[in-house]
Design brief:
2 copies of one chain form a homodimer.
Chain A (H helix, E strand, L loop, with lengths): L7 H6 L5 H10 L1 E5 L4 E3 L7 E15 L5 E7 L16 E14 H10 L1 H27 L2 H18 L7 E2 L4 H8 L3 H13 L3 E4 L2 E4 L14
Helix pairs in contact in A: 3-4, 5-7, 6-7
The first copy, chain A, binds a DNA duplex through helix 7.
DNA sequence: CGAAACTTTGATCTCTGTCAAGATTAGTGG
DNA sequence: CCACTAATCTTGACAGAGATCAAAGTTTCG
């Protein structure tokens, strides 16, 4: 589960950059491993390195002084963990389970990107996708009931896994209830209750480390919404 | 109030692009005017044009099928209304009061940007800023009480106006209560009540078309938060 | 001046959060 | 392999912030 040995530079480039660009990117990439719960970087730090995810799942989050936490995204292989040209990290990142990343020295990566129109274009497209994702999440947080939030989260997560080739009938949920709660602006008890309610309604089946989506697409909760 | 005659291409470029790039950008820019409430583009449309804001305030929002609305941002002069290289608009935009925009033919703008490292860089930086703003907003929507949301919204809005040179002691609020509510994931009644409560606490003064921020920085609501 | 749009204020209800207790799972060492 | 402990998850009872419904006040603009 998530053991697919993606390699970040290739995954990020897709078919869109030259062999030279890819090999330059690979030359800069230092493979690093993090264990479950380990912090990869923290909000506010100067971004000496950039990170691209090769294997595993990472949660990106902001902490408020009073201890509240907002998970801003879960990252899958092939994505940068943060915008590579930003001077500082706008959020913290830690590993959910074991994780492989490619670490890039920021200045060198910056030079490489700025010297390559292809890479710049890829980065702009990446940023555009991430922005749209964040805006969709805004819409969900601002408008959704607990049930909508959980249901839409599950469908979105399943869709992302499907795209990233880690396609399996039971959808793995490697993150904790608390992570989901902090992502959706809910409390973990509410997430738990809502999952139970959705199972009651026969739209999902709860499994040990995942979930089975049965009638979720048809459920009015997620129809016609562009989250 | 917001009558400053900014010109989008110059504002966007700042000092960071050559005279040639700026003149090319200006050559492509068609000045267009929209009156209050008019729609500039709608979510899902193919993006034939890109828009940069020269004067006024624009609200960017997503509509759900059941009529609920999420305002994802208010735009000030110098910003693109959407990511210029995206194929489709991920949200709708309409004018709050009178607005001047520069309209660019998408294909030509795309070619210009892709041919200019400076512009690409500016675009990446723009996207990075917008992403961080969206993530901060996520954090606010996910964690904030009504009072925090309103207070932080006011401070952020004031700070943005200050940066964009439209600096005035009474902070103008050109948007409607409903817009603020849809931005913060609240109901307009709650916004109204909360503003009254903040005035009660002597941290703001409500004015006809704006607000005066008095003790808001010191109020514990907004201390030490990185929204 | 008068109608329409917007804002404020009030009374009540509901959903989610809070607090608390159990149940289940995972991890550890004998 | 099993006992034991800690972590995670589920479930229940209650409370409170914000939503909803309703009405009155204010501003805007023809």
């Amino acid at each position: 589960m998530f053991r697919t040995p993606t390699f970040f530079p290739s995954a990020f480039c897709g078919g869109s950059c030259t062999r030279h660009e890819l090999s330059e990117l690979t030359r800069l990439a230092a493979p690093v491993r993090f264990g479950g719960g380990q912090t990869i970087f923290s909000e506010g730090e100067r971004a000496e390195s950039s990170f691209g995810l090769s294997r595993g799942v990472v949660r990106l989050y902001k902490l408020l002084p009073d201890g509240r936490r907002q998970v801003v995204a879960f990252t899958l292989p092939g994505d940068f963990l943060a915008m590579p040209l930003a001077n500082r990290f706008n959020f913290s990142a830690d590993a959910i389970g074991d994780v492989n990343v490619s670490r890039f020295p920021r200045e060198k990566l910056k030079r490489l990107i700025l010297s390559s129109p292809n890479l710049q274009r890829l980065l702009i497209d990446f940023a555009t996708r991430e922005m749209h994702t964040a805006q969709n999440q805004l819409s969900l947080l601002g408008n959704g009931s607990a049930e909508e939030k959980v249901a839409i989260f599950l469908v979105n997560w399943r869709n992302r896994l499907a795209r990233s080739a880690t396609n399996s009938q039971p959808v793995p949920l490697p993150m904790r209830r608390q992570d989901i709660a902090d992502f959706l602006g809910l409390k973990l008890e509410t997430v738990s209750r809502t999952l139970a309610k959705l199972e009651e309604k026969d739209v999902i089946r709860l499994l040990p480390k995942g979930v089975l989506l049965t009638g979720l697409e048809r459920a009015s909760l997620v129809t016609g919404r562009s989250y």
